[in-house]
Structure formats: C-alpha cells, structure tokens
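Annotated sample (chain length 232).
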Amino acid sequence: MKNKEVIFQDWGLMDYQLAWDKQEAIFAETVDLKTQNRNNGTEIPVPNHLIFVEHPHVYTLGKSGKPENLLLDELGLIEKNATYHKINRGGDITYHGPGQLVGYPILDLDNFFTDIHLYLRTLEEAIILTLADYGISSGRYTGFTGVWLDADNEKARKICALGVRCSRWVTMHGFAFNVNSDLNYFKNIIPCGIDDKDVTSMERELGFKPDMEEVKSKLAQHISRLFEMRLL
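Output written by the structure step:
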C-alpha cells in the first residue's frame, strides 16, 4: 500500500554538517525499512519526510563536481565565514546561506512514482508555481536542472538549484531556492559549473524581501498538491 503521508519539519537555521547527519540518519532508516520489508515479506508503511532548512554560509560540491569551481582557498573561506563540504548528491558546486530556502525531501518514491526525472521536474514545477504566486515568470533551461528566469535569452539567470541522491527509490538532498540570499557569495564559485550564467533571488527580482515564512507555506502547498501527499 502506498503511503502518501509526509512528515513535514522546518529545522530553521542549522549547521550544514548537523543537518546532513540528521538527513543521512533518516535516509538510512528509510532504506533499512524497505530492505526489511523485502527480506521478510512484510508491508510496514515506509515513512516519507519533507524538511525545510536554512544554512549558515557553506559551499557544497557534488560527486560529479570539480573542486576548481570553488574560487576560494582555506583562508578565503575563513574570511567569508563559510565552510566547504564534498557530498554524495549529484551536480556540481553550489552555495547555501541565510535567506535561501533549502528543501530536503526524503521520500520513498515507491509511494509516489518511480521516475527520477519526473521527480526532478515535479520539484521544479513547485518552485515555478511559487514564483508565479509573486508574479515572477520562470521555467526550465534545456540541458540543465533547476529553475531559471529568461532561460530563452542572454539574460538567463538561475533562481533555484537541484541536486539529489536516490537509492532503492529513496531520495535525499533536494533543492536550494534563493529567496533573500546574499548573492555576493555566488561570486566565489562557478555555480553548478556554469561560468557564463547569472544567479538571482526573489528579493532581487521583486525589489523587496518577501516574507520567508509565507514563501515556505506556499511552496509546501504546491509540493503537497503536485505529489498528492498529505503533510503531517
């Protein structure tokens, strides 16, 4: 039986390593339960989680990324009050920091649909719909993941990055949505390995800081509807 109930948590501002450890623990428990069900012939419902969080300034490099896309050395990281982590998601380098809404869905896709490309496109669609709530027109950029503005011309700029890991149809990592981010921190990397495109935020596009709690609420509603899930 498919379990469409999703445990929703907002971890607030949390150190990246701590959040990663917590996420890994939930992921491991979920995969272990799926394995037990398969080995024992049981049908214990496998839980799903959706976590929202903000991180202090940090750069993360995916397993397919290039370390040279970080343009800071150790001293530079200290000066920027930032940390650096190599992690096990897909994608290249990205930045997280205060004012950026990071989403970690830890979902058993057997409860929804077993299609990782559809999963990515559905997360993108939730961001696109949230931006539309604020009058910001966005979409996809052929050949790249994430959500972009003006993707069809030279003004193309990224507002949300995606990078996920999936094992036994259980997902982890997720998206990084620039709401009120300090965009200067992106100048210290080649974001996602793309050196000729800009990044942006809701604040930059709107000319004011949208309320983060309101953005979280709207995005959670769109994710819930698109995945046909029930948030607990």
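Annotation: DSSP finds five helices and eleven strands in the chain.
Annotation: The two ends are 18 Å apart (CA to CA).
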